[in-house]
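#dry-run=false #mode=assembly
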Amino acid sequence: MAVAEPILGNDQDTGQSVLAHRLARTWRQPRGLWGWFSNTHHTDIGIRFMVTAFIFLLLGGILAVLIRLQLVRPENSLIGPDLYNQVFTMHGSTMIFLFAVPMMFQGFGVYVVPLMCGARNIAFPRLNAFSYYLYVGGALVLWGGFLTNTGPDVGWFAYVPLSGPAYSPGHRADIWSQMITFTEVSALGVAICIATTILRYRAPGMTLNRMPILLWEKLVISLAVIFAMPAVMIASGLLLLDRLVGTHFFNPAEGGDVLLYQHLFWFFGHPEVYIIFLPGAAIVSTVVECFSRRRIFGYTPIVVSVVATGFLGFSVWVHHMFATGLPQLSESFFTAASLMIVIPTGVQFFCWVATIWHGRLQLRLPMLWCFGFFFVFLIGGLSGVMLASVPVDLQVHDTYFVVAHFHYVLIGGALFPMFAGIYFWFPKMTGRIADTTLGKWHFWLFFIGFNITFFTLHFLGLHGMPRRVYTYGPDMHWHGLNAVASSGVVFMTAGLLVFLVNVFRSLRTGETAGNNPWGDAGLEWSMSSPPPPYNFLHVPTVGGRDPLWDDPPDQPVVVGLRDDIRETLVTHSLDADPQHKDEDPGPSIWPFLASVAVSAAFVGSIFTPWAVPIGAPLVIVTLVGWLWPHGPSPTPRPAEEV
Amino acid sequence: MNVVGNSALHMLLAQAAVLHLDRHSILHPAAPQAGHIEWLYWFIFWILLAVFVLMIGAFSRAAGKTRVAVSHPLPVMEKDEIADRRAGWGVGLATGITVITLFVVLVFSVITGKRVEGLTSKDPVTIQITGHQWWWEVTYPNPQADQTVTTANEIHVPVGTPVVVLTSSKDVIHSFWAPNITGKRDLLPGYSSAFWFEIEKPGIYHGQCAEFCGLQHAHMGFSIVAEPVDEFKAWEQQQLKIAAEPSTSEAVRGREVFLTHACLMCHTIRGTDAGSRLGPDLTHVASRNMIAAETLPNTAGALAGWIVDPQRIKPGTAMSPNPLAPDDLQAVVAYLQSLH
Amino acid sequence: MNAPVRRRLTLDVSDLPGVAFGHRNTTWLANVFFMVIEAMMFALMFATYFYLRTRSTDWPPGHLPPALQYGMANAVIFLVSVVPAWTVRKRAPEGDRRAVKNGLLVLTAFAVAATILRIFEFSTLNCRWSDDAYSSTVWVLIGMHSGHLVTELIETVVLLAISFTPKMEGTRLADAAINSDYWYFVVITGLIVDGLIYGTTRFL
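#status=ok
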């Protein structure tokens, strides 16, 4: 690394220097409504992902409340089977496709990754913005369908033949399938942006071996998305073809096969669990390190575990299909693989304990939520060990035991870390610290309510209550437990309300954060809060795994990037040596227009095949508009960076 | 035992079963299969409980030991080689124990799986179960067609004899599950598969569809009536007979109504012109405890209500409403109740 | 400006190039990710093909195998078209705009020819997609590949259009080279699809 002559510079970006003014002008995002849709800066898009996903968490939560109300007593007539089936399908689909992945992978990833890398923007910012609008499009399609009584009613997994043309006439299952296409294209787009950002936009000196664990996990998740999502797109695509144009992929009468769908779906479906959980683990590793006031113990084992989880996640899909009666040998193999995946997760847990054990614990709000995660996810992981065993699984599969298990895993693995992450980066995003007292109320209400509801469901499963039933007879004696489970909802709802109050109050009256209120090590804490549109006044260089803790005060900064165009620095994938410079394409309305065209074509194709020939030219026009080179770059002039 | 007495016994058993809270529970096995699985469940449970206590203990200890109640960020600790080495041993040891524990779980799981699946008996009772939206077609296949018993939703099995279940589905995927007996098995269209169980104690065990199968997934129950071998044989002989000739004038009229209305479009009553297999075989419908896949008790009132408006009771069911005149309805019910 | 001003060490990157060719280019990396995604989709469709094959005793079940003429003609076009793609890929980093323009022109011609032949190919598959699962798979395999072919055709035409303007410089040249990588991908998947629908229906 060539270190040039020392320069005079400011330690802190006060936003007052000449350079800061120039960069702010160059990287400024357009204003107004048009500007809002043209914005391509990752901090803005990341927050939009989070806010939108959170709205769908609340909507999915309302559906959950409906489910719990319907089941609170036997033969309840609150909602009939037709609506109930839509409600539980919408609940699952919303939580997985519109909340968990967009929040945990896209939201946090898009916001945090470029900041942690020391980049001025995410790679391919227009693709990133396009992915956001497409996600919104998918969400609108799904909820638009539901609000017009065309909500999917075949479960979030849409097994054939129930979801096929013979047993699900109408457009409900079509809506589900197209929503999958929308959200998966969105996740794939963001995966490409994030993986490229991590591999190419890291600050000089941030070799792979110095990469924060969060970046490792985001890289692994991006690759898991790239390998897993095509499977569900094929599954839902073939389903759509069966439904709309009369192919026979899943029709046993014409040589099709119903298990084929399950293989395709779960080849995606199980990695999906890790796509949701690993971002949570990434947040936990970050928060634990910060609030133990020591470098995380076991960097290498944790990274190896994360990579191993990414791989093993692809070898366990059949454990969702034990009850289909597969050969015993293959069942044993998938039991072994499913048990094996416990090991890397266990290693991460042990490393977190060791970090706290040999650190100095500060139980601030984000850390409190991490302790909630430890408790809840541990229970979910342990009941998962039971489910890996074929004989036990054959008993509890598709019962409320499994419902309890995966809510412990998903709420434990995503929601608790999400709140840890929100409280942790809230100061960075908003410039203010969220209120601790309200945050504790939020935690305890939610934690207690969650355990009341979902721990009870284990017993219901053991006493034979199957999933997805809209009612049950009084002779089954399930009402007592169901009533207890439903009562927990009150606490969880109260907790979420406290959270919303906290956010809105803290946005206005919260304590000002400064650059780095927690004293954390990540590069995202080196600029003002919220970050300026150019992120870093000087692109930093990095000398250790924990930049703000390790680096000496005279750690070099990068100079020589132009401040009159949006120039970014591209470094080597492995050792992060500077290689060349890229130009950020800047704000543009085209990604939004392209997403509108694509959405119109997708939605229209449900109703008429003509949507494809009509929609395709529109899509092409918008894509060409997006990619067509614009006016020549201003002639380079010497950088004036001081 | 005469037929009346037989069904009275059934009613009694049914009553007892309703009072019995555990006729639909994984933790109250009535068959060796469910028993093995229950044992495995508790075996894994106690191991996991120990792991849970240890992990929570470790977190609490770590937190209690090192917690500092200061809200401003404390300085970062210097690297401590000795602490790191000790932590390394701890993590390594814990990982080793994890691997061993998982291996033990795997071994016992595979052994239990073999025990549950392995069948050695040469002389089992074979039952074909076919899933329909939303009821179970039950046949006891026999090379001779007239020796094949066909019924629905109520599965009679002899106690102490291995029962082989062959599965298939007419429409969507269903899953056959009686928790007290053994684990579930999916009924897949285009596939047939087999599993077996053996019940030790006489009784009526409840079961339910466990794979989401549409609108009335919730109302797709069945029962397994386990009875001593001679009672089972008697039941089988009774089921093989064609339908009893109606003995009262009302029942005769009921048969007439049955055969001149929509009923015969879907149902079979052997010995009459009704021969469609779309709905459950009703030749001996009065011998069953429940109707509509365990949705209603098999009483005159429930039957009448079901015949008139099944869509109110089970919205979405394939059976259409039958707005019969009151006396016609009464006659049909009387006829059906005579079909022991 | 109250912040303390002091001397800082710097890393000067002003001499680094503004464009990179080959694997250092970020768009190249994104293109690799795109190809991985699409390769996964093809792989899963191939797996679907063989999975459904196991569920049928006859293969093709009650159909003649697809007729060879158009498929084989297309395979030849795919193979020959590698030459202009290779030329573009080689000449672009050298800044040879003329060679790139000519290469794109030839590549466009091949892509157009392949697309037209593909339309005829659909008419000689000896089955309709709605006949049975086999036919559905054949149509979706070849349809999926046609989607890639048309996408690549459009991309090449757009690059060709740019190459007639002065904007074909720097990153656009790099894009032209990356476009060749994608063409290779289309060729390779095309040949595999041909092998499946023309080969396995005859020889397996």
